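Hey, resending since the last one bounced:
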Amino acid sequence: MRQVGILSAREAVNLVGDNDTVVVCGCENILLPDTLLRALGERFVETGAPRNLTEIHPIIAGMGPGRGLEHLAHPGLVARAIGSGFSFLKTSAYSELLRQGAFEAHVVPMGTLFQMLRDTAAGRDMTLTRVGLDTFVDPAMEGGRMNTATPDSLARRIEVEGQPWLRYEPPRIDIALLRGTTADEHGNISLEDEPVSLGVRTLAMAAKASGGKVVVQVSRLAKATTLHPRQVEVPSILVDAVVVDPGQSLSGGALNPALTGRIRMPEAQIEPLPAGLSRIIARRAADEVNPHDVVNLGVGIPVQIPTVLHEYGRADSATFFPEHGSLGGIPGGRAIFGTNINPVAIIDSTFVFDYFQGGGLDVTFLGFGQIDAAGNVNVSKFNGIVPGCGGFIDITHVTQRVVFCGTFSASGADILAEGGLLTIRADGSIPKFVPAVEQVTFNGRRAAARGTSVLYITERAVFSLRDEGIEIVEIAPGVDLHKDVLDRIPFAVATSPALRTMNPAFFA
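The C-alpha cells again:
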C-alpha cells in the first residue's frame, strides 16, 4: 500500500482552488476539523485565495467565535453555502455575511443532504425525496433560499406516477475536509476518540467519486497496519493527505470517554435539573414517553427529558436516539448535542436517517421558535438568527408522535412556580405564538392530514393539533385561561371541552 502524504495544515489547504466545492464534516464543535478551517481562512486573508468557493456542511460546523465556519467569514472566500443550518448565535460573523447577501445561502434537510452525498458517491444523477414537501425547502414555498442573494432553489418539485417529489442534483465535490482520531502511515483513519462519525466515510467517497481530494485532520499518527480493521472508519483508498494536530481539541471535553464508550459514567454523577420553566416543561413532556419507546430529542428543552426520567427512576424505560447516531444512554446536553453518555451503539448519521425515514421512531421531542394558527412550527429562521432546519424536517416526516417543547414567550418573562401553582407576573417580550410563522419548518395541515399526533407543551398550557388548527387541552394550576393564555395569542384557539389541569407536582 502507498504511504499517505503527511502535510501541514497550510500545505493541505493549498490544495483548495478558486471556485472549488468543499465539503466539511462536524456537528457544532464535535468532530470539527477546526485546524484545517482556520488555515483556510488564514490563507485567504493573507493571499486573497481561494475565492468563490461552494461550501457544503451537512451539519452546523462550529459554534462560537473563531470556530468552524466562522473562519470562512471573509467576503469573497465563499460564493455559495449549502447546509442543513447555519448558527443559533446572533454573534455569528458567517451568519451576518449571509444576512448581508455576501453569498448564496441554501438550506437542505440534513437527511436529504446526506442522501445527496451518497448519490454523489454512487454516481447517481439525481436525488429524489418526499422529505420537505410543503415546508420552506419546497420550491413551491421558499425553496430553502435563506437570503435575497440566492436566486434559485436547489430543489425542483416534480411528479412521479402522480405523486409530488423533490428532486435535487447531487453535488460534485473537489475537496473534503474531515477529521478523525488516528491515521496510520497508509492513511487509514480511525475515530476512537469521537462520539459520533457524522457521515465522514460518505463525504470522502463523494469526493473520490467526483475526482476530488480528501484531507483528514487527526490527533496522532500510527505505524502502518497497526489499526484494527474494525476501527477503520475511512480506509486509505479514500484519503489523499493527513494533517496531524497533537493539540486537536477533545470532542465533548471531560465527558469524552463516557461519550465514546471507553468508560461508563456512574448514573449518580448525572446532575438533576435546576428549578425553572425548562424543568416544568421537561417534566410534563416526560409523561409522553412510553416504556420501550425509541425516542429522538431535539435541541434545547427536549434533551433535558432523560434527566427527568433518571430522577423518576425511568431512565431505562426508553431508548434515546439522536440523529447523529449515538444510541442508548442519556443525551449529553446542549453543549455536546447529538452525543449520549453511556451509549450502547454508535451508528453513522447516514444510516440513522434511513431508519428515521422508514418510520423507526416512536416519538420525537423538538423545540419551537414560532407557532401559528394552523399549527405550523418555525425553527429555521426567526428573531434575526438563521439556524436552519438540521434534521428537524427529516425527523417529523413520518414519525407518528411529535411533541414540541418550549416556553410560551421568550426574553424577560417573570414567572413564579411555587406551591403547586404558576404565577405569570410578566410575559416575555418576544411572542412565540404568531399570526403566521416566518418560515414553515413543520406543516401543521400536512401533519393533521397524515394523522400525526402533535402536542405543543409550554410552561402554562398544553395544546394539541386538530384538523382546523390548535386546541388548548391542559392549563397550569394558578393560570387564568383568558388573561394568561388566550388573550396573549394573536389568533383564535379552540378550548377542549375536556380541558384538564396540569399536574400540580410540576410546579412545586
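The CA atoms of residues 123 and 209 lie 7 Å apart.

Sorry for the duplicate.
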